[in-house]
Amino acid sequence: MPVALIGLGHWGCRFVPKLLNHALVKGLYCYDIDDARSRRIIQDFPSVKVSSDYESVLNNPEIEAVIIATPVASHYSLAKKALESGKHVLLEKPLTNRVDEAQHLVDLASARALKLMVDHITLYSGAARSIKRLIESQTLGKVIYFDAVRANLGLIQSDVSVVWDLAIHEFALIDYLLGEMPNRVSATGAAFYGSLEEIADVTLSFEGGIVAHVHVSWLSPVKKRKLIIGGMKKMLVFDDMVSDKKLKLFDRGVDLSVNAGVDKPIVTYRDGDCQVLDHDRTEPMVAVISEFMKAISEGREPLTNGAVGLRCVRILQAAEKSVKQRGTSVNLG
């Protein structure tokens, strides 16, 4: 199936070789408003067909699917035009920067029987699928908290805050693992080099008492990608910055016991073994492309469909509102 890639910036360029080498992609068209980027792509990848403008992509009957890797402010208008032209759409995260626009895209894709997918790439790692299985099998017991950090030095964005740029990865992953929306969001942040937050802390509260804390930063001297999941039976650590042993399962935790004649429960601590877990090593971006193409050919919804993207935008918008209100809790129920 021929595919068109819109946007040849940092993320779009990473898509090009993966698309060209993918068995389900039978031709690649590219378009970027910057002609210099298009010329560089042709030099590096001569088989790519460069389109002169976006309208020519939309009017090309050979192109059935469009991948949009542009700044978020342009997502809605570009995706809307593509869906109205009968194209399936894969969007770089986030889906849009407004809930009402995200909802309209979801409704439009449904009305046209087209696939709308968001590139929540964290969900396409083998580690994410392994974590999902551990939670569903009750290996961790009842999950009580998530504690995540995603930090590095830059890249400071001019159009979105660090919450929209980085925290969305954790929001999407937690949504995937729990399958439910938080009912409250609170967030604080600070901006030192511009008008948008470069460092932030977000707390998601869920109906059953689960709490998720997410710390994100563009101002860290070291790169961190770590998620800790606390369960009543066991605990899990996912460290995406190590080359090996990314997933570790700990037989550690807190136990409470009540003895006759004792007013307060006795607290004991388990300090058991640590088990290193293996997982599928398929490159996430390749898995994203496969999911998009297979969802189209098989006539099914992709894992990270428009509804998932919409939920994430709702959380992002609530977090943004909370930051502006200096940490006031925002209800999502």
Automatic annotation (TrEMBL):
InterPro entries: Gfo/Idh/MocA-like_OxRdtase_N, Gfo/Idh/MocA_Oxidoreductases, GFO_IDH_MocA-like_dom, NAD(P)-bd_dom_sf. It comes from the Bacteria. Pfam families: GFO_IDH_MocA, GFO_IDH_MocA_C3. Residues 129-236 form the GFO/IDH/MocA-like oxidoreductase domain. One of its GO terms (molecular function) is nucleotide binding. Residues 3-120 form the Gfo/Idh/MocA-like oxidoreductase N-terminal domain. This is Oxidoreductase. The lineage of its organism: Bacteria, Bacteria division WOR-3.
